[in-house]
Amino acid sequence: MQPLELSAVDLVTAIRRGEASAVQVAEAFLGRIEKANGSINAFLHIDREAALARAADIDARRKAGKPLGALAGLPVAVKDALCTSDQPTTCASKMLAGFRPPYDAHVVAKLRQADAVLVGKTNMDEFAMGGSNENSAFGAVHNPWDLTRAPGGSSGGSAACVAADMAPAAIGSDTGGSIRQPAGLCGITGLKPTYGRVSRRGLVAFASSLDQIGPMTRSAADCALLMETIAGHDPGDATCLTDEVPRYTEMLEKPLTGLRIGRVAEHFGPGLDPEVAHGVEEAFAAFKAAGATIHDVELPHAKYGIATYYLVAPCEASSNLARYDGAHYGHRAEPGRGHRTSAGPTGEFESPLVEMYCRSRAEGFGPEVKRRIMLGTYALSAGYYDAFYAKALRVRRLIRQDYLDAFAQVDLIGGPVSPTPAFPLGEKTSDPLAMYLVDMYTVGTNLAGIGGISFPCGFTKGGLPIGFQLQGPALSEPLLLRAADRYQKLTDWHTRRPKLAT
Amino acid sequence: MALTRQDVAKVGLLARLALSGDDVERMTGELTKIVGFVSQLEQLDTNDVAPLAHPLDTQNVFRADEPKPSLTTAEALQSAPRHDGSCFLVPAVLGDSGAA
């Protein structure tokens, strides 16, 4: 048995049946991490000893006939934006270097209860702000399909570690596309659940009305398996939905006959790479062959998505990140260290305390995080609030209404995840606005609070994965997962692996 | 809409970010470009549209008003850069000396 080649579903089954031990499986993936992580940099922290001890405990309990959780023995990598009480949690920021949270995120606790084996914390764009993973304070992640290219972001480490077989499953978070876009660029499957479907407690907050945690795996069936563990109500997150969690894994079989999939003409406008367009059209054809019907739908305000998102998200971020003050936890500037910098129109700080705040934050945050804090602070400041923040919230309602109107005509909306395949590292780092546009097809899902899934639908001539995105109404995860699973039963794009020199 | 260096310096203090002269210079250009881009929303007439701050219709979620354990003092202070065992220590809130 080759653990690295098995799906998460098959690994869990094999361990439950005793065909493989949890220790064997953990050793296989930890060995792979040892070989491959050096060139990919997907992990910020690897917990080899704890993972093996955990796996041994699961094997002992299985032998003793004790009950095991639904994910018993499954190695899972967790984005470093989720709090783990026994591992550092840095959000790939110098601000949180070495930070040990005093508690586990709800999703981390659920994974532990389900007997998953947490192998480590994955690299990301600092505070989840970015679309290439180049904003990490601890180095960029390299795309396993081409090490000179970006894996996407912000959950780039989670996407890359699954693509490179370093873990069969990973947890990501998605504020404007941060699960779906890296999944698309790395050739894996990623689900952004409906806002509130998964608890955000213990997820380091970026933009609280947009953030959502979700699974990143090789297949839709594996995403379904993880969702059964991580979804569900948590009294610790007041925005977490109370709706019952469906048995996603048992709802995948039904054929797609009669499924109505919407196609948005504007998705195929200027800016879309021709090879990506071709792959996406082929996927529509495959869905049609599987019994679905394709319908033209309109999202008239979608073209305002990026502008709306880059007001709403930075405004919320500037408020959320105010907590990093050098006083309670995280980086603190020491008095007299470093060069004196100016603040305020007169170049003066208001007091020694304010100076400590300003210098701690200047030293701890990277350039993109500072840019977004500045943009959000500006848009929320006196005289600009109505023109920027309130305006964006009004357009947000128009964008959500577009989706509600479209879903009156179709069950799901299909299209590209990203306008291009994985781009070269360094290509967009000097132009923040160009980087923002990589999210053009994904931000609408978050603004509307609905669900979306991304999965591979082909490869470019140069061997880079092409992603397909399906978006569905609130709580349509069973349908999103079923449609992606049916597609994956008819195609083999999701089974392809990068050839890594290790 | 072009931002000035004074705008950026003022926002820097509001955002509690110490900015060097170079930072202010660079951010003035970058933020002007980004603000120019997001200003395209002005094209839309939204007079009759209510703001949507949150995608869910859920409002006023209450939990049972029951005492339960929270973080201990030691846990709350475990990652503090400076503390005295019961309080976080910070530099002087007023005046210009007395760093903790």
The SSE order of chain B reads HHH
- What's the alpha carbon Rg of chain B, rounded to whole Å? 22 Å
Broad structural category of chain B: mainly alpha
The count of DSSP E runs of length 2 or more, i.e. the number of strands of chain B, is 0
**Secondary structural class of chain A:** alpha/beta
Main beta sheet of chain A: 11 strands, mixed
Q: What's the alpha carbon Rg of chain A, rounded to whole Å?
A: 22 Å
According to CATH, the fold-level topology of the domain at 5-43 in chain B is Histone, subunit A
Uncertain residue ranges of chain A: 337-341
Overall geometry of chain B comes to flat
Proportion of beta-strand residues of chain B: under 5%
Order of helices and strands of chain A: HHEHEHEHEHEEHEHEHHHHEHHEEH
User: Class of the domain at 5-43 in chain B, according to the CATH hierarchy?
Assistant: Mainly Alpha
Can you count the beta strands of chain A? 11
Key features of this structure:
heterodimer; A: 502 residues; alpha/beta; eleven-stranded mixed beta sheet; 15 helices; 11 strands; 12% strand; globular; B: 100 residues; mainly alpha; Histone, subunit A; flat
Task: Give an overview in words.
The complex is a heterodimer of chains A (502) and B (100). Chain A is an alpha/beta fold. Chain A is built from 15 helices and eleven strands. Chain A has helices at 8-17, 22-40, 48-63, 106-113, 156-163, 180-186, 220-230, 274-289, 305-320, 352-364, 367-380, 386-406, 432-436, 443-448, 477-490; strands at 43-46, 75-79, 117-122, 169-173, 189-192, 213-217, 260-264, 293-297, 412-416, 451-459, 465-472. In chain A, α4 links the parallel β2 (75-79) and β3. Residues 337-341 of chain A have low confidence and may be disordered. In chain B, 33% of the residues lie in helices and 0% in strands. In chain B, α1 crosses α2 (21-38). Chain B is built from three helices and no strands. Chain B has helices at 5-14, 21-38, 73-77. Chain B is mainly alpha-helical and 100 residues long. Chain B has a domain at 5-43: Histone, subunit A. The interface between A and B is large, with 77 and 63 residues.
